[in-house]
Amino acid sequence: MKKSVLLFSLCFLCVLTSVASDTISITSPDKNLVCRIFLTGPAGGSGNLYYELNYKDKAVIKKSALGINLKSPALQLNTFDLVEKNISTTDESWTPVWGEVKQIRNNYQQLFLRLKTKDEILVNMVFKLFNDGVGFRYEFPQQAKLKHFIIAEETTQFAVTGDHKTFWIPGDYDTNEYAYYTSKLSEIDATGGKFSQEIHAKTYFNTNGVQTPLMMKTGENLYINIHEAALVNYPAMNLVIDKSSNILNAHLVPDAVGNKAYLQTPSKTPWRTVIVSDKATDILASKMILNLNEPSKIVNISWIKPQKFVGVWWELHVGKSSWDYSGSQVGSQQATRVPHGANTANVKKYIDFAAKHGIDAVLVEGWNAGWEDWFGNWKEDVFDFVTPYPDFDVKEITAYAKLKNVQMIMHHETSSSVSNYERWMDTAYRFMKNNGYNAVKSGYVGQIIPRGEHHDGQWMIKHYERAIAKAAGYQIMVDQHEPVRPTGLHRTYPNYLACEAARGNEFNAWSSGNPPDHETILPFTRLMGGPMDYTPGIFKIKMNFYDTAKKEQVHTTLAKQLALYVTMYSPLQMAADLPENYERHLDAFQFIKDVAVDWDDTKIIEAEPGDYISIARKAKNKDDWFIGAITDENSRTSILPLNFLDAGKKYLATLYKDADDAHWKNNPEAYAIEKFMVDAKTILKLKLSPGGGAAISILPVGNSDIKSIKNYK
Ligand code: NOJ
Ligand code: CA
Fold it and tell me: Has residue 378 got a pLDDT over 50?
């Protein structure tokens, strides 16, 4: 990755051998944020370590404890002497391989503390204070008295200032596929709730446990997001709320024997992050988590390509065909037999469709032997990832895709037998390369093997990274389903295009689904860590289309499904519905064909978690803009000034909107398309139906095109 220093880098160095003061402050570059670090003890410069965070003179995080408890050696690392402090300022910019913007500014004030316990254990704390929030972490430098150690728990606290409105999912060691709850902190009950029963492999641990990214809104309209960055070789962090004090306590995911992490000096924890603003739009625009991750480890990035794909996939979820060769659909509650989806003729239909409409790639699930008993048995040897079913002709499909200039995406469902996947991974990646596949969708459904390990524990965190790094060695791009929630690691591994790690659109096919506010919350929570393979673009909204007995449905209008290509950022976007459903609405499908997947610029025009989001993005190396506007269950009028367009230029806008009588529940597929001319002075007024949305493409035009089309009124 090219890292260009745009502005000068300032460095104020202040090295002290003995420090009398017990309070150290740093200030964000725009002066809005102040972070204070305290060593509170009998003598100045020694004692228990705390921090606090203020935004525009208001407390965001009150004085909160820092520390780590070790199991072996048995030590509490929370009382320190200050050995050295060092404050510095960085202001630079870097260019992501792909992303929401062309360049990212990395501008912060840093405090580095060298600390020592009375037992002479050395711990460093690093705080980076940006305009959008703070990131801090613990470092364990190489030292005589600490080499190998086991973490019992991290005792980091986030003492918030009140009983905030919170967008949360239950704390869990294994799954993040819950729908969001919106409640006060004091009302959180992670034990059950209406969505719990639909989720397998869940490991609830505490009534007051929640996952990050945790989104909160204070009574004074401050927006606060707590998460982590650069989760590497360490378990994920859940938070447990102390309801009597509004303190959120770190709770690390344990391993099979109850330990949290095995480390060796020198090592570092992930960054703990608090993003804060009085504008919800700033939370979505924050690049702090990316800034806290390491630059790309991949030097040659020419093979990494943002892309759109279709796939033998939704037809499996709606029960039209099966993963399983016998058609019995183990694990999908389907009693009657249906055809095997991944047969050569069917796959060729998808390749034809992709080729005809300029879609880059085709995913095929259920192509390989093993689906007969892949689910629910906690069985170790299920798939080998190289044995196709007899009706899936790998060579013929590869040749056909090549002829049609379409890429194939491999599918590796591991059934969470990760020990088995680790044994096969090299062979499987080599098989992919030999057959022309350059991207893999992997999956981790079910309980982990090695038995007792968890999806979000240190063992699996290392596995996800190893799978991505190894794939990079084969020049393979990765899309993981059911992994840990992302923490910006796609900066370091840009072949990690996307992951699921939340409740995707698929839940609408076979469960109570995703409530109409779901997609207005995800960008404030799950997507803070990285792009999501949400699989938007469902046009056939009601599942009774496939089987009259079905009651399930997507909880949006069709127009909102289009808007998601813009509001739900990902460099990997599926056109998830069946080709025949798109053929019936080619006018609306045009938006999916046109919309970009890589961007030079992003404007978060308006946003409120749980209510609405409107975003405009400029396509990479083009003057084309795309807008997505979505609402929750309430109808709404979006006012969108187009002042980001080039002044004086004329653009042709195509608006894909909810029809006047559209409604997510009763009339979800009613849409209308309008074309008109716009410029930088245009202010669009869009009516969104309940559960609805609007998508707009805005393409520059030459003078000759302008005459026939009316201006926007
Ligand atoms: C769950 C994934 O999220 C889904 O996309 C996939 O089709 C199934 N697992 C089967 O692997
Ligand atoms: Ca899933």
Answer: yes
Cα–Cα dist 586/592, whole Å: 10
For 623-644, how does the pLDDT look when each residue is reduced to its tens digit (9 = 90+)?
999 999 999 999 999 999 999 9
Over residues 83-119, the pLDDT tens digits come to 999 999 999 999 999 999 999 999 999 999 999 999 9
- Please work out whether the CB of residue 177 comes within 6 Å of at least one atom of ligand 1: no
181 alpha carbon to ligand 2 midpoint, in Å?
19
Using the mean position of ligand 2's atoms as its centre, give its distance from the Cα of residue 348 in Å: 26
Q: Which of 199, 310, 506 to mutate to test the pocket of ligand 1 (most atoms within 8 A of CB)?
A: 506
Provide the pLDDT for residue 7.
34
Residues 241-265: b if buried by 16+ CB within 10 A, e if exposed: beeeebbbbbbbbbbeeebbbbbeb
d(CA 630, CA 611): 8
Residues whose CB is under 5 A from ligand 2 (ion)?
481
Average pLDDT over residues 50-75: 98
The backbone torsions φ and ψ at residue 289, rounded to the nearest 5 degrees and listed phi first, read: -65, -40
Q: Quote the percentage of the chain above a pLDDT of 70.
A: 94
Distance 332 CA to ligand 1 centre (A): 11
Per-residue pLDDT, 20: 40
CB neighbour burial string for 49-59, b if at least 16 within 10 angstroms, e if fewer: bbbbbbbeeeb
Closest ligand to C-alpha of residue 331 is 1
- Residue bearing tokens 């079913």: 389
Residue 5 in this model has a pLDDT that exceeds 70 = no
Number of continuous H segments (helices) and E segments (strands) in the chain: 13, 38
pLDDT in tens, 272-285: 999 999 999 999 99
Say whether 669 is catalytic: no
Active-site option among 228, 506, 519, 552:
506
| 202 touches 190 (CB < 8 A) | no
- Out of 372, 374, 445, mutate this one to test ligand 1's pocket (max ligand atoms within 8 Å of CB): namely 445
Model confidence over 545-596: pLDDT tens digits? 999 999 999 999 999 999 999 999 999 999 999 999 999 999 999 999 999 9
Q: What's at 89, amino acid-wise?
A: T
pLDDT at 198: 77
- Bigger pLDDT: 15 or 202? 202
Nearest ligand to the CA of 501 is 2
Residue 492 has pLDDT above 80, yes or no: yes
Atom of ligand 1 nearest to the CA of 413: 11
Span from the CA of 444 to the centroid of ligand 2 (angstroms): 8
Sign of CA pseudo-dihedral 368, 372, 373, 376: positive
Distance between CA 646 and CA 632 in Å, rounded? 31
Could you tell me the distance, in angstroms and rounded to a whole number, from the CA of residue 85 to the centre of ligand 2? 45
- Any idea which ligand is nearest the CA of 313? 1
Residue pair 307/360 in contact (Cβ under 8 Å)? The answer is yes
The answer to whether the CB of 552 is under 6 A from ligand 1 is no
Which domains occur in the chain, in start order?
3-288 (2.70.98.10), 310-501 (3.20.20.70), 502-713 (3.20.20.70)
